[in-house]
Structure formats: C-alpha cells, structure tokens
Amino acid sequence: MAKKSIVILGNMGRAGVAEQIDALRGWFERRVKILGVQAANSPLGDAARSANLCVVFGGDGTLLAAARTLTGTGIPLLGVNMGKLGFLAEFDVQTMQKHFSAILAGKLAPTDRIMLQACVGDCDTHRFCSPAANDVAISAGPPFRMIDLNVAQGNEQIAQYFGDGLVISTPSGSTGYNLSAGGPILEPVLDALVITPIAPHSLSIRPIVVGAEAVIRVTATRVNAGSAVIIDGQVSSGLCSGDVVEVRRAAAPARIIPHPDRTFFDTLTSKLQWGRSPHHRT
User: Fold this and answer.
1) Residue of 104, 212, 269, 282 with fewest CB within 10 Å of its CB?
2) Homologous superfamily (CATH) for 116-249
3) Homologous superfamily of domain range 5-113+253-272
4) How far apart are CA 100 and CA 31, in angstroms?
5) Where are the alpha helices (DSSP H) in 120-256?
6) Does the pLDDT at position 272 exceed 60?
7) pLDDT tens by residue, 62-72
8) Which one is catalytic: 22, 60, 135, 243?
9) pTM for this structure?
10) Are 114 and 253 in contact, with CB atoms under 8 Å apart?
11) How many CB atoms lie within 10 A of CB 42?
C-alpha cells in the first residue's frame, strides 16, 4: 500500500520549531511521504496540494496562517503546539506521535470550521481580498477618533456602529478578539457568526449572533487616516471613508483535527479558566 502524504508547515521564526521539525523528519519519513516543509504563511506549492494531511508546528497564530494558506484544499490540519496557549493547536509532540496512525487512518475525523472571505473591492487605493479563519476586524487606528460604520446583512440593515470599530468572528475565533471585546463564546461547529462592536458609543449596541449564509457589508461612513481591516490579527489593509468591506462565508471550511482526549469545554476550562470558581485564600 502506498504511503500517505503530508505537508509540514511551521513558524520558522520561532525558536526551536525548525529544530523540532528536523528532529522528527526521520520519524515522519518512516510513516508517510513528505511533500514539502515550509513557513505557514508561504504560498503552497502545487505538489503539496495533494497531501492527505498538514502538520503545523507553532502556536495558534501559526495554525491560523496555515488555515489561510490551505484555503480551499480540504487538507486537514494537525496543530502541534510550540507556542504559549495552544487553544487551536491542541497537540504536543508526544500526543501527535501517539495518535498519528489513527489520524492517517481516518479514525480521528477533523471538524469543519467556517472560513471567511473578506474583500474591499470598490476602492482602487485599498483593493484587497483575504481568507480569514478567526475574524475580520475593522479598527479605528490613528489618530484614534471614533469611526462610523454602517453594517448590513444581505439587503437588511443591522445597525450603525459608532466607536472604535467592530469584529466579525467565526465560531473558532469567538474565543479570540471577539471574546476580549465582550462577545459571546460559540461552539466551533455552529453555523453562525458574531458581530461585536469595539467600545461602542452607545449603551444599546451589543454583540449579535447572525447566520453565516448572507454577505455582511460594512460601509465605512467615516474613518480615520490610519483605519484598517485586519485579518486574524495578521494581515491588514487600509480603509478610506466610503469603502465597503464585504465579508462572506468562504466556499470551503478549514478542517482541524481535534484533540481526542478532551472536549471543547475541557479546553475552555484548562486554557481560559472558564467556569472555574474564584480562588480564595485560606
């Protein structure tokens, strides 16, 4: 039987990542065919697009970059955490090795995570398009005056947001910027998005959960010289007054291998201390 194939992506700028990949190369080669080893944010070669699995070495940010790099390929992502939190990149090296055969055999199925596509298409200055795994944020930027954003879903007006910006988040990204801005946590498998204002200048504006099917259009009614559209906290483009940011569900989801020994709520508790009682001194 022919060996299955993998592509290895990593945060090559992080200390120890390249060395860890080199140390495991022989272990991998005895089990699979390696189609490529590269930085997570580099374009994927044609040969690597036929891989059965992508092993990602780095932190959660590296996994987000890898998800954008693999957009539309359908290749499952296996995140090996070499960062700090390891919320999305759930495996350590030992756990990855323990379950590697089961993953290749399809016994640990990936979960589909909504991806977004964000575009500024009507502006010659800031013509921009990018996939997003976690979120699309619009930030006020310098000189940090409040900005005015008009938000609609399909043909229906949602609200006028006046404040420091907003975050449009996938369920996967709900525990990131969205959560810090006061938005709700969504289970990763939900078919929904969250629109969360950043420091709104109104007591009546709150985060809202919407369906993922209709296009969300954000019109920059008034923004600052330094205002920007920010993708997953990693990729950005400028924004001018009058620009329209269109955010839609991407054609294909990201496929992420979940940790077999813990649930999403286990991860919330262990990584973010969610639902735990305060620690009282005795």
Assistant:
1) 282
2) Probable inorganic polyphosphate/atp-NAD kinase; domain 2 (2.60.200.30)
3) Probable inorganic polyphosphate/atp-NAD kinase; domain 1 (3.40.50.10330)
4) 9
5) 177-180
6) yes
7) 999 999 999 99
8) 60
9) 0.93
10) yes
11) 12
